[in-house]
Amino acid sequence: MSYYDLDAILTDAEKVPCKFELDVPDLGYLDNNPSQGLKAQTPVSLPLWLAELLALSSRTQSSNPEDSAPFLTLEMPKALSNEVVSALKADPRAVALRDQTHNMYGLATRMLDLFEEPEMCAVLRRTFVTRAAETALHARKAGATDDVVRGEGFLSGLEEWERSLFRRAHDGNKACKEWMEGVKK
Amino acid sequence: MALPLPQGLVPTEVAFLCEMEMVTVVPRQRLESIPLLSGDTPVLRPPHRAPMPLWLALLLKKQRRANIVPPAWLHPASLADIIHHETNVDPQAFSPPPPPPTRADGRTGRARPFQENIRSSREAPKPGDDPRLAPPFLPSCTADAPGGYLPYHWLELAEALLAHAADDVPAAAEVRSLLRDLQEVRAAKMRGSTQSLEGGGGVVVLRGVGAMELAESRAFVLGVVDGVRKLGASAEATRRDEEANGGGGRYGGGGGRGDFEDSDEEMEF
Question: How confident is the model at residue A11 (pLDDT cuts 50, 70, 90)?
């Protein structure tokens, strides 16, 4: 992952729900209440890079991992909630991942690093390969036939990883077709 | 990012490499041997067939000085057989590549490709020692290549022959449509092959896939493999940790890679 990778930066900026474990003065504006401080256990949404940092670092100096208390606790973002995961389990192709978040898989890998969810990992992997095959089919057909309408729903639901897959598959096909048309010369 | 070229060979490069393949020509005029970097070409005497690299054969064909004998696998019946094999016999895998050439004495693996001089029996190389048994050096596109098997450069060679020597290919129109079918069937398999990655340990079997098909889907397949790897990275790390912990217990915590990895968690300062 490059320093200038825009997708990584955008994934970092995804909001994740979390709760502060302690009262924070002067942060009330996060809860639309600027006049008061932020109470502990108020649900707020923070960007992933900040939330991850605060959830993993300890607010006490002790190095004993037993009583390390983080500043806040993380929760699974809505895009990876139970409803979405069970919908993906039912039919990976029917869910428009882009409507959940633009960097679905990027966010998922980051969250899987933080939470141990072997089942979600398996579901996502199955989703990815199933949708990849479908994506490649559309990439091959794109531009070749006129039935844009059929694939439109699926293609607009592709998230960033899948879009780049689509581009790769389509570029390969295009180069091959161009060569084939040029053989005659 | 620095170089805008994709990974691996692009289709035009593959087609260029394909021009090195040997094909059989039937000359119409005499032509003396030409000394080339790859070796001397055989002397052409009109009714005798001779093996030629594809690029030279196409050149002679364009000048109407030779006809090209299409390989047996390019015959419509052979192509139909292959399609049948791909769709009905083995709908999962690709049809197998041509078998290594056999000699009359039944020993495989000792090809006698173009221009290989019959060496004296004393200095005959050991079996498996022949550096020419890789696809570009096997005579897989000459007239005596076996039918019913697709060689490595099947698509490029077929396209080149159909484009420049269509009058030499029997039933060219039928061959063309069969090739399209075959291409579609195999492209669908190529897309489907990534499905086997789901389990995590899946390996995509690419036996019998042609060079052009590889060039076409390389980026896509690599993208899927990479994506699956990234999605499984955390599960893989957990698995390794568990393995390392288990191993550490068994060996009484004696040093090892696993112990080194979790030393951050276990050591107390």
Answer: confident
Contacts of A57 (CB under 8 A, 6+ apart): A70, A71
Q: Which fold has domain A78-185?
A: Methane Monooxygenase Hydroxylase; Chain G, domain 1 (1.20.58)
Tell me the C-alpha distance between B2 and A131, whole Å.
30
The torsion angles phi and psi of A73, rounded to 5 degrees, stand at -110, 140
Number of A–B residue contacts, CB under 8 Å: 105
Do the two domains A1-75 and A78-185 of this chain adopt the same fold? yes
Whether the predicted pLDDT of B105 surpasses 60 = no
Category of A32 on φ-ψ map: left (φ > 0), alpha (ψ -120 to 50) or beta:
left
Task: Count CB neighbours of B120 within 10 A.
Answer: 7
Mean pLDDT over all residues of chain B? Answer: 75
Nearest-Cα residue of chain B relative to residue A119: B235
Is it the case that residue B225 has pLDDT exceeding 80? Answer: yes
Q: Taking CB atoms and an 8 Å limit, are B230 and A109 in contact across chains?
A: yes
CB-based contact B233 A109, cutoff 8 Å: yes
Instruction: Name which of A2, A31, A185 is nearest B2 in CA terms.
Output: A2
Asked if the C-beta of A84 comes within 8 angstroms of chain B's C-beta atoms, the answer is: no
Grouping H, G, I as helix, E, B as strand and the rest as coil, residue B44 is strand
At the second CATH level, the architecture of A1-75 is Up-down Bundle (1.20)
Domains of chain A, by residue range, sit at: 1-75, 78-185
State yes or no: pLDDT of A18 exceeds 80.
yes
Q: What is the pLDDT of residue A62?
A: 59
The reported pLDDT for the residue numbered B264 is 43
* Residue B163: closest C-alpha in chain A: A184
**Do residues B30 and B242 lie in contact, with contact meaning Cβ atoms separated by under 8 Å?**
no
B45 three-class SS: coil
The gap between the terminal CA atoms of chain B, to the nearest Å, is 44
DSSP B177-233: HHHHHHHHHHHHHHHHHGGGGTTSS-----TT--HHHHHHHHHHHHHHHHHHHHHHH
Q: Can you give the residue range of the structural domain that contains B23?
A: 7-108+129-261
Cβ atoms of A132 and A162 closer than 8 Å: yes
Token pair belonging to B123: 């200095």
- Domain membership flag for residue B178: yes
Euclidean distance between CA atoms A112 and A116, whole angstroms: 6
In the prediction, which pLDDT does B135 show?
53
Tell me, what's the ipTM?
0.83
Residue B109 has pLDDT above 50, yes or no: no
Which strand (E) or helix (H) includes residue B39? strand B39-40
